[in-house]
Amino acid sequence: MFIKKNLEYQKLPLPHKVSMSDFEMMSSIESFREYMLKRHTVRDFSKRSVDFAIIKKAIQIAGSAPSGANHQPWHFVVISNKDIKKTIREAAEIEENKFYSGGASDEWIKALEPIGTNANKPHLEIAPWLIIIFAERFGTFDDGSKYKNYYVPESVGIATGFLIAALHKAGLSVLTHTPNPMSFLNGLCKRPKSNKPVMILTVGHASEDATVPKVAKIKKDIKEILTVLD
């Protein structure tokens, strides 16, 4: 929450300046790259519990992401309640059944075939945590008046990336899920209409027999995703 009367520019010395040699920079980024390459999207989760403190720390990291005008237009609802997870699964599967039974184009369904997805979403109940990510169209000042948020999709996307990386760093697996429409989540999560649910993250440990689709290991070569203008 922002305080109206304190909305003015003030500069501070950079509080945490990281200084590395060229060798240290390369070593650090290579180590991070190698660890991130171990991140895999799974659909097979175990029922092993995950301490809420770990989830909370990951969300604190997500909350440190850059955002338009520093408005931080996001809200995270974490759910472990079995009944609520069951309700979410049931609602999500209704929409997914519509998608797979004619709601999506043949081209879209064909594109998903190598991934092996279908309308059945048991992971929404099996995994210990669901994190619902909301984008906030408006914020509220301390006096109750509203202000507009800017670059909301971009900001929430960056924060979501931070969150997934943080959860991976904690040794957890994550599955992104975007049922459409998702407006039912507002009432379920007690969020105002100004909040738009954009994603469900299923979070937990991969099961012992977890698999990944072979095609998921195929990544574009650096030449396909990088252009250098020097």
Question: What is the secondary structure topology, with strand pairs?
Answer:
Blueprint: H1 22-36, H2 52-62, E1 74-79, H3 82-103, H4 106-112, H5 123-126, E2 129-136, E3 138-140, E4 146-148, H6 152-169, E5 173-177, H7 184-189, E6 195-204, H8 222-225
Antiparallel strand pairs: 1-2, 2-6, 3-4, 5-6
Helix pairs in contact: 2-6
Task: Note down, in words, how this protein is organized.
This protein has 230 residues and is an alpha+beta fold. The protein has one domain: NADH Oxidase (3-Layer(aba) Sandwich), CATH 3.40.109.10. It is built from eight helices and six strands. The protein has helices at 22-36, 52-62, 82-103, 106-112, 123-126, 152-169, 184-189, 222-225; strands spanning 74-79, 129-136, 138-140, 146-148, 173-177, 195-204. The chain has a four-stranded antiparallel beta sheet. Strands 3-4 form a two-stranded antiparallel sheet. A hairpin with a 5-residue loop joins strand 3 and strand 4. Helix 2 crosses helix 6. The protein is globular. 23% of the residues are buried. The model has no long low-confidence stretch (mean pLDDT 94).
- CATH domain fold name: NADH Oxidase
* Overall CATH class: Alpha Beta
* Share in β-strands: 15-25%
- CATH homolog superfamily: NADH Oxidase
Outline type: globular
Proportion of helical residues: 25-40%
Count of discrete structural domains = 1
**SS content category:** alpha+beta
